[in-house]
């Protein structure tokens, strides 16, 4: 065996070792959460890499809690609404910003980008006042409003970039065919923008689904909470016990839909994020 | 079908005067070609007629209506784009039906129109395909079908063939010409290719720097270019130009001295010009004759191009570095390195004054 072959094998081994390392780093916490959720509470602190017993009592416990089911429902309502509103506003805004020439267009784009640069904590108290004034405190609508504010900049930027790449002549052809801007957007551009919309929509969904700080601040009662807050506020039998089992079960339950969504849309996401990078 | 009338049309983008006071009549059923170098404003002029750009000043009539402020769909125009701009997610049928659907046409009428357009353009087999499954020529036909399906009064073409390869271009050119014969509709066609202009047009409009240089039939433009620009633009290979001085005027025309060629008696009328005025003499490659060198009339052959049916001979003048071209039928007796004299056919020589305007012929003088 020559030195060259040896070094080739060494490189390959190193490459795969690196991949395994990254995989473990990324997946292990979630894997451990899954394992923990499958253990009875007596076994909780015994470290195991493979559960010796399969116990679904944690899932049963969490899924029979009315407040948790309610929280899932709230999360779905909030996240779906955020995605819908963000895409609607994002598409129409990106048409204006990507297609219509007007003075101050780049300023508007920069301001939109600027909005997303503030840390959540910085706007928390101001936003709280806004939500109080609008009478949206302890109401999912308040969450929809605040998530949309933080989702829109990204949505608008990605969609504007995408919109700019659609050929000008396509729009002009639609104009010659007698299409109004609204018809051009819905009948001509929308069908071509599915990859970009799947990407931005999914990222908006994930952001809204996982958001914690606003959800904690702007809601008060169990009936209005979203899942991240509900999980954090799960309480055990006594003040000194954290119910790790049910918490992990709940975490797994709320993570699975995201994983499924990403798997469904992953091809679209990749083509959406790279679309236009190379002429297709 | 309708006529188009442009009166003092202007278009200004910021500080740039793209279209400068253009007057033009396009008759009912006429095939008019706008031709010119890139940046001459030909596409802008077409877009002004289409309604994709707003007219800064002037009046545009289609039929009897002033359409300056009408949106494209109310002007009754259809347009074929350079990149075709087909809707990629729609089938050929839907591409053609889109405009009709937006106009709230009845379903049966839509079907009828699309089918009859498809029949004319031989697209019947392709109606259910998406644009990406079509060849360049087929896409081109779909783009025309989409513009035709709404039965516009005027069809506009914006360099429709420039994305096709050479042989397909010739074929589509032919199809467009036959389409015009068959439909008899008014068509306005923009191209930078003078061959397309010559072969398709009833009337050519040569544009340069936002102004009309000349309007005329292909024959008029080729045989009697009004300006040096038109003379140089129409025809391939291009017309030969050489500096000349006016020597004398008489009843028969004028006598000029062309650099390198010598004295020539020409039929042009130069009465209005002063003695020894500087002129430019223009002669097409096929109107030159080569002879054995005599005296000062001596040019070197630097290259001979054999094209099968004809031969181009490139000649180097003593002054200046623009090669002169001679065209003759193959075979040719001339070879590289030989020295020859140039003998222009004086009946086919053009003279231009310093501002590039052609001097009149006596016949034109009498007619005027």
From TrEMBL, chain A:
It is a multi-pass membrane protein. It comes from the Bacteria. Keywords: Cell membrane, Membrane, Transmembrane, Transmembrane helix, Transport. GO terms for cellular component: plasma membrane. Residues 72-265 form the ABC transmembrane type-1 domain. The chain crosses the membrane at residues 12-34, 72-96, 108-128, 140-159, 188-209, 244-265. One of its GO terms (biological process) is transmembrane transport. Its main location: membrane. InterPro entries: BP-dep_ABC_trans_perm, MetI-like, MetI-like_sf. It is found in: Cell membrane. Belongs to the binding-protein-dependent transport system permease family. MalFG subfamily. PANTHER family: INNER MEMBRANE ABC TRANSPORTER PERMEASE PROTEIN YCJP (PTHR32243:SF18), MALTOSE TRANSPORT SYSTEM PERMEASE-RELATED (PTHR32243). This is Carbohydrate ABC transporter permease. The lineage of its organism: Bacteria, Pseudomonadati, Pseudomonadota, Gammaproteobacteria, Oceanospirillales.
TrEMBL record, chain B:
Gene3D superfamilies: 2.40.50.100, Nucleic acid-binding proteins, P-loop containing nucleotide triphosphate hydrolases. It comes from Vreelandella arcis. Pfam families: ABC_tran, TOBE_2. One of its GO terms (cellular component) is maltose transport complex. Keywords: ATP-binding, Nucleotide-binding, Sugar transport, Transport. The keyword Coiled coil does not apply. One of its GO terms (molecular function) is ABC-type maltose transporter activity. CDD domains: ABC_MalK_N. Residues 4-234 form the ABC transporter domain. This is Carbohydrate ABC transporter ATP-binding protein, CUT1 family (TC 3.A.1.1.-). Signal peptide: none annotated.
